[in-house]
Q: What sequence folds into this?
């Protein structure tokens, strides 16, 4: 969906009948819908009864969500006659680990859930990635329902079937592609999300503009206040993001090509997350906000993009309160060589050469497969100043 | 491949040019070949160079194989210019566990193997199932080469893409479907396999006859001596088995239907393996030998098959030295109710009803989805006498 600044139309991203916005993800016999709307958590039971008849629900959630939205989910499931049990993990990235994975696998199997039953992820990207991996491997694949509750999960991690956990060597290095059967994004759930995490998710929203939709980015520059406030602008931003991701995923499910564009800012970003120990020092969306600014700056340095565009990106992220510089990361960071080493451990390495998503300007990202490591260290050494 | 006793032709199962027998597995863009022949381990390097150009090899093997056939594999890889490193696990079913899985995953990632590199399984079904699961999840899927060295692995576990590990709740309950890119079955490797494990693998060979190829079963009744002795009869039996499995897998990759026929004897068998703690008291092939006899006896009891056919099955397995009765299992077993409980935990349970593979006679197995649990306990109580 490439639009120009003049033609981006937020209203077109909404459902006309006041019901949930439906974004189909076209993947042949693995196709599914993303439903976006206000107050949908309580309707998941009815939706499952209709779309996954007979499936019981092995809910996976984190302790934050368990205190906020689990009751509504369980009430709706019960009303629909769907048996469920809930497995609660600790909030935070540390739950995307082997020990927690093993514990959830055991709990799902111990709950006697079968292939036709569904793992139901209620939470942010951490819960979604972890439980999607569980759904992908228990009995070699169970059904899977995502109820993303963070903005990041609603616009990014719940769509597309990438699941996984982290290991000592790096982030998301272990997992499977396992598409959900249904994604239900309740925009009302975002009202309990912290400002910080809303902002972090916003970085992924802006990413879709930066990749190939300059019009959407321009609309965000003008309307970010309304998006943060909630209401129709927020719903429009979420639906536009989901459509953009759905289109890319449908074209390249297994990331053999175009899908890599979604990693804009992520090679730098993952290195920063590794450097800060995947801790609260820097959450994913903050890391990739810096990463996207760096990707634009690096593109300028490689004479690929204009300084003006890179400055617009930095300015917009600053305006909404996202970090944009290495210096914005609290605490010490490794030097340029140390960061390069972390980048090399990132999974977007093809046969020893560095792959980056670079850009010719806002809305003009592309895959660069052969970036010389020395150019990266030189650039990072300057950026660290 | 259904043949009658009169038409089964062992010679037709062999390659005519003296080269390896090639059995194609037709799975669209996941198609691959099984190569069967004498002394192939040393040629895996050349085969990989030709068929998986550029892939490095993360060898996974067990301590027994490491002492017997790893050198030949490594020499061939080196001669072909393929970098490799070997990860050695303990022999035996206990290696199909979360801790070993995690260790191998870490070793593969730590060895900086990438998506385009291959996990190379050198060993029996344990090594194949474990390392196939690793290949399926590291970086969300690496390439995978199987070098099955046990008879069971050559005729069964290396073909079809089922991978996985065991958990406390049961066998193979965690894993993925991950097809290999190449399977190389070196029949010479079987010369170092123990009699006991050769016999256990033979149970799976006979299974293909019992499922839908009465002619093959009759040929085995007449030629088992030659199959055990090695040479062309052994190769013919292996190739016939691989063709049978390849056909079923091609028709039903994800076991939504016909593929379940391959579980003949396995529901009872898995319960016996669970009851004996997956220990050396009873290896997989022995467990399913008993399981297949029980499946025939149970079918007789349900008035589905003739006593004559069931007796032929028991007699043949006895002749080759396989166990055929619950009483043949060394040590104590749970009673009928205890066994039923273990059966219920087996994964071939659909929405609470018991699914068994039953038979109308030799070569006439079918899927029975609605077996009353009480019929099973009654039958087992008698069988235990
Ligand atoms: N699979 C993919 O394609 C993909 C894409 C992008 C990111 N990710 C992954 O997503 C993860 C980050 O996701 P995230 O930012 O959602 O992190 P998260 O799941 O840790 O959620 C952030 C915090 O917000 C809380 N929270 C979530 N929803 C809430 C709500 N409605 N109300 C109150 N609190 C709420 C959580 O408990 C947590 O403390 C990372 O692990 C990243 O790797 C995956
Ligand atoms: N994936 C599938 O479709 C599938 C199908 C059937 C069985 N299986 C699994 O396969 C496993 C059983 O396989 P297995 O019987 O090969 O067990 P195994 O891998 O434990 O091998 C049996 C023993 O023989 C040794 N061995 C193997 N090859 C040898 C050789 N050439 N020379 C000397 N020693 C050798 C091994 O070290 C081991 O001690 C079970 O875990 C079962 O669940 C999987
Ligand atoms: Zn991201
Ligand atoms: Zn078997």
A:
């Amino acid at each position: 969906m490439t639009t120009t600044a003049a033609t981006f139309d937020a209203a077109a991203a909404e459902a006309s009948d006041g019901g949930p916005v439906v974004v189909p993800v076209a993947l042949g016999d693995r196709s599914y819908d993303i439903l976006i709307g206000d107050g949908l958590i309580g309707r998941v039971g009815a939706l499952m009864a209709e779309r996954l008849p007979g499936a019981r629900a092995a809910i996976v959630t984190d302790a934050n969500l368990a205190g906020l939205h689990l009751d509504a989910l369980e009430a709706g499931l019960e009303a629909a006659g769907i048996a469920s049990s809930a497995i609660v993990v600790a909030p935070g990235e540390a739950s995307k680990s082997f020990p927690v994975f093993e514990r959830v696998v055991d709990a799902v199997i111990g709950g006697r859930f079968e292939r036709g039953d569904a793992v139901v992820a209620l939470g942010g990207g951490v819960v979604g990635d972890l439980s999607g991996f569980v759904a992908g491997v228990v009995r070699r694949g169970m059904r899977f329902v995502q109820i993303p509750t963070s903005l990041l999960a609603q616009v990014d991690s719940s769509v597309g079937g990438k699941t996984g956990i982290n290991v000592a060597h790096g982030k998301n290095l272990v997992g499977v592609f396992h598409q959900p059967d249904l994604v239900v994004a309740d925009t009302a759930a975002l009202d309990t999300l912290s400002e910080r995490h809303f902002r972090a998710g916003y970085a992924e929203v802006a990413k879709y503009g930066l990749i190939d939709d300059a019009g959407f980015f321009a609309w965000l520059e003008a309307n970010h206040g309304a998006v943060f406030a909630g209401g129709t602008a927020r719903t429009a931003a979420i639906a536009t993001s989901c459509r953009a991701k759905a289109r890319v995923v449908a074209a390249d499910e297994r990331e053999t090509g175009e899908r890599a564009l979604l990693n804009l800012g992520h090679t730098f970003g993952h290195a920063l997350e590794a450097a800060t120990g995947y801790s609260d020092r820097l959450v994913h969306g903050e890391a990739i906000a810096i990463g996207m600014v760096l990707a634009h700056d690096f593109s300028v340095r490689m004479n690929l993009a204009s300084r003006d565009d890179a400055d617009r990106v930095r300015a917009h992220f600053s305006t909404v309160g996202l970090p944009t510089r290495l210096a914005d990361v609290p605490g010490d960071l490794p030097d340029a060589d140390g960061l390069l080493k972390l980048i090399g451990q990132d999974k977007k390495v093809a046969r020893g050469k560095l792959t980056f998503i670079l850009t010719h300007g806002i809305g003009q990202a592309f895959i660069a497969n052969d970036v010389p490591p020395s150019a990266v260290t030189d650039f990072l050494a300057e950026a660290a100043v």
Notes: Chain B has two domains: 10-193, 196-383.
